[in-house]
Amino acid sequence: MTFTTRTRLDGEAALVTGAAAGIGRATALLLAEQGATHVVLVDLDADGLATTAQAAENHGARTTRSTLDVADWAAVEQLVESIGEINILVNAAGNIASSPFDLLELSEWQATIDSHLKGCFVTSRLLAPGMVERGRGRIVNVASVAGKRGGGFLGKTAYAAAKAGVDGLTKVTARELAPHGIRVNSVNPGLTDTRRLTPLREDPSVWKRCLAAVPLDREAEPREIANAIIWLASDAAAYVTGETMNVDGGVAME
Amino acid sequence: MPSRTPGTETSSTFADAISLGGRHAVVTGGARGIGAETARELACLGATVSLLDIEPGGAERTAADFRGNDLSARGFDCDVASEQSVADAFAQATEEAGPIAILINNAGATSFVPFLETTEADWDKLIAVNLTGTFLCSRAAAVSMRAHGWGRIVNISSVAGKRGGGFLGRTPYSAAKAGVIGFTKALAREVASDGVTVNAIAPGPMDTDMTQILREDADLLERIVSQVPLRRRGLPHEVADAVCFLCSGLGSYLTGETINVDGGIAME
To answer: Looking at residue A182, what DSSP letter applies?
Structure first.
């Protein structure tokens, strides 16, 4: 066994939320590339899901698509009952909330907390029992440096609170599920080249200020975040749990 | 277009991304344990490895073993706490295997002496090996990394540096290993624009010769393991895997980060 073999995911079944674009899509494709045989793709964007599914199938994986709201317990429960064993869960779903604090409505707050934080809870809560039963599972949550630094680039109060919550949830579930052979970790991306960056890029002075805060002086490609997710989900990270890893070009250094 | 960290733009597949084809990697404390396992894994990814160790002939013995398995390896005697010894070893390694692209600062020492019994000599020795050694080797390697616009430095710290000891290693060890984390971040900021990333790994309780004491004290071992969420000690290859992640194209967007490889013990 070497690092190369331990990063393989041959025969695994995985579920990825937020799989229609960005980090979720890149992760779904890497799961398939690394040998996962069944990848369940969840997102509200059906067109994006179809594109991801086609690309994952080109790597030889079987895919199942579901356009459900990750915070909808009943819907997720129904999906979980229909897809069979899942040993890898990647939570990448979530809306960005951008209202400044003094204008933030309760509805936007609630929608942000639900999609980022409650979604992680619901999918983890409903998939963990099967993992416990089999004594094997890996959960990787996508948080954000915004949760560690308190915003700064994208996302303000609601987003930062939800993402800090994701890291908290990651650690508690890691502690509780460790005795059952389940590892739970998160990645905290910084500036990542997804459609969320569009508003920042539109204003050159804003974009310049964003990059100035990044020691590596560039944004990440979604694939670079997915690489970290795949490592954490693989047996090459067998002694890593409860870790909230920054994949941020050095922005957060805490 | 901002400068891109090499290793991302051309990596079309995962397999391409993890290849270290031909890169020269130096691993300190490479004769045994985590260092030897890390060097072996880096060599398996295609790196040419130079092992450095203070044990006379130890590094070369391990390197010879690697060569017997068709891996590219050399061994050099080196005391990382001695500026002259580091200069000599790095010069020799560079002459034989080319410019250094990857440096793993793994050499370390610990002690179990309580604070009120710790002497100045105990303190100086642990700071020298664990912290000053990391500085000296990084400085020796960073020159060629900067010149080539690409480099990876991974420092082996310890959860003792984050939690303040608790299991093994007391005040000087914790202070030195916490110092390694501060050094990692400061150096990461300084060399980021040169295409060099600097990260650390904080292992938890490991099963190595350095923790020989645990092999002899079952009660202490049980007390430690019971506090680890994963309920076991880590193995050298598990630290090596984290090093491979950081040194390959997979870790291209991490810098200044300290990854706990600790079974969940440090969660901060």
So the answer is: E
Contact at CB, A3 and B44, closer than 8 angstroms: yes
Question: Nearest CA to CA, how far is B86 from chain A (Å)?
Answer: 28
Give Cβ neighbours of residue A132 (< 8 Å, ≥ 6 apart). Answer: A177, A180, A182
HEC profile of A45-90: CHHHHHHHHHHHHHCCCEEEEECCCCCCHHHHHHHHHHHCCCCEEE
User: What is the H or E stretch that residue B102 is in?
Assistant: strand B102-105
Would you write out chain B's pLDDT as a tens digit for each of its 268 residues? 333 444 344 457 888 999 999 999 999 999 999 999 999 999 999 999 999 999 999 999 999 999 999 999 999 999 999 999 999 999 999 999 999 999 999 999 988 888 899 999 999 999 999 999 999 999 999 999 999 999 999 999 999 998 887 666 789 999 999 999 999 999 999 999 999 999 999 999 998 887 777 778 888 889 889 999 999 999 999 999 999 999 999 999 999 999 999 999 998 7
Note the residue count of chain A: 254
Q: How close, in Å, is residue B166 to chain A by CA atoms?
A: 19
Of residues A175, A179, A218, nearest to B4 (C-beta)? A218
Instruction: Reduce the DSSP state of residue B33 to 3 states and report it.
Output: helix
CB A175 within 8 A of CB A126: no
Spatial neighbors of B116 by CB under 8 A, at least 6 apart, are none
Residues of B in contact with A243 (CB under 8 A): 259-260, 264, 267
Contact call for B253 and A223, based on CB within 8 A: no
| Residue B212 CA neighbour count, 13 Å, CB half | 6
Contact B18 A216 (CB under 8 A): no
Element (H, E) at A96: none
CA dist A36 and A32 (Å) reads 5
Alpha-carbon gap, residue A21 to A49, rounded angstroms: 8
Contact A175 B264 (CB under 8 A): yes
A222: nearest CA partner in chain B? B253
Number of Cβ atoms within 10 Å of the Cβ of B79 = 19
Spatial CA neighbour of B244 closest among A222, A236, A221: A236
